[in-house]
Description:
Elements: E1 13-20, E2 25-31, H1 36-42, E3 60-65, E4 68-69, H2 81-86, E5 88-90, E6 95-96, E7 100-104, E8 116-129, E9 132-138, E10 152-156, E11 163-167, E12 176-182, H3 188-196, E13 202-209, E14 221-226, H4 231-243, E15 249-255, H5 264-273, E16 277-283, H6 302-305, E17 311-316, H7 318-331, E18 337-342
Parallel strand pairs: 1-7, 14-15, 14-17, 15-16, 17-18
Antiparallel strand pairs: 1-2, 3-5, 3-7, 4-6, 8-9, 8-13, 9-12, 10-11, 10-13
Amino acid sequence: MRWLRSAAGYPMSYQIALNFEDGVTRFITATAAETIADAAYRQGINIPLDCRDGACGTCKCLAEAGSYDLGDEYIDDALSEAEAAQGYVLTCQMRAQSDCVLRVPVSAQLCKTEQASYQASISALTELSASTLALSLKGQALEQLAFLPGQYVNLQVPGSAQTRAYSFSSLPRAGEVSFLIRNVPGGLMSHYLSAEAKLGDAISLRGPLGSFYLRQIQRPLLLLAGGTGLAPFTAMLEQIAEQGSTQPVQLLYGVTHDQDLVELDKLEGFTQRIPNFSYRACVASPDSNYPHKGYVTQHIEAGHLNHGEVDIYLCGPPPMVEAVSRYMSEQGISPANFYYEKFAASA
């Protein structure tokens, strides 16, 4: 996420990501002196609440990242000591002391907000392989775009009312964002990008969306990518490179054919920027000439799993998600957290 800071001379403010249960994410700023509920209301988002006094519990949310003051005017019936220890907060009492991520247990519509829309244009389009395209979009509106690394956005296919969902493969920089897009034969977006698109073409975005995003790193990470499911991980690794991590981060990246391997130079670059990062790519095809063959599950080692004290992130097609889940069960390993996102190509 690209955090925003107040200009010098103004009260310190923080950026708060509100993740709603329908997958919509909205970002607000909150000063250290105001409650999150008040900050949200000031910016047109009505987090459900009944009392504003810490008595009803209606505004209870889960703080997934950040530092904050719980407040001292709520009662145990609204927020128990055990809930507070798990990270639950009352937004009518909570005051931020850093940038935070909150999970809001209601839909964005109920809070009278919706997906944000942005207009941008194609700034770069590269064929990384026969199966993968790299797309970059740039625009002044994107300078206001914020998202959690791992999330996705809906891109409208030019000349069509249809949209396609793609994960960000980079953090936003100077109003520009990037995506890895599978080149699907007969695919609506694939055809447009490979046969019609020109630099400068306008494309609209709606989002960000999704509950698949990098949480606060508290233990070793195992990242499992299948095909263009690599995209959210390159965004996550960019953030880890910027913020640092004392925990080991390991990535296993699997594809079907040799020609499907992309962005290996970028992954190699992350090994220089993140001292405790390592990766391995593997190719499933028996005809492969790549040194590491087989499926991702064949390359998971005991050290990767750390006796279950590990957070696993997986992004890939449904069969891969099911295979990894089955592998974990067979190994008798229950990871501390298992976050995954399935994707399927749209023709």
